[in-house]
Give the backbone structure.
Amino acid sequence: MTFTATVTPGTAAGTVNFLDGTTVIGSGTLSGGKASFATSALAAGTHSITAHYVGNALDAPSTSTPLLEEIAGATSTSLAASLNPSVVGQNVTFTATVTSALPAITGTVTFMDGATVLGTGTVTAGQATFSTFALTVGAHSITAVYSGDTTHAKSTSKALAYTVDQSATSTAIAASLNPIVFGQSVTFTATVTAVAPGSGTPTGTVTFKDGTATLGTGTLSAGFATFATSTLNVSTHHITAVYGGSTNYQTSTSPVLLEQVF
């Protein structure tokens, strides 16, 4: 940084000393009424900087009012996750820890997934947290970016390699009627749910099977899929519902439903 002192009248000549408190940290020669001094050696903290013109045979000495200069202290930010990997819909908390040689760290931390902002947290006692259950399946590169404050410099954590896996599912099947008579229509309903700790509502299709034979398919809506038929012959049928899975959810098959047709 560069400090510039202005001495009036502008015809004054000579030297200006720059002080940090009572310590001279440098000097500059007046030219056109101005003298400058550049330094990068100030330690972190608050400095009271003054400029003292030493005077000459024609111009009396003078000293500026103090300038309070804040030098931000270096910080280091680290990042940890409450669990890794997680599954779709599972809540994860990211914790950023900001450290510095200077006390009383304030400010915020922005949590990033690559170039995408996930959210922010306020630094309290050197830590900031952010929780989410919205991360998608796949690999994520999570970083914590500390904003800095008046006495603490910005810093960014190393990238945390984070993985989200598919959620397991459970499929159940029910029949609108059981038993039925030959030629009577029956509707099979499959219910597909995420298995904890996963959450959310699975999407995709369900295949309804009679043993190894496919009866038909249904599209999930709000976790339910249906298929109706009136072509089952007289027999005991072993009906299952097979969920085909999706990007976020694993496949699953229901227990066997014994459907009796007389």
In short: The radius of gyration is 36 Å.
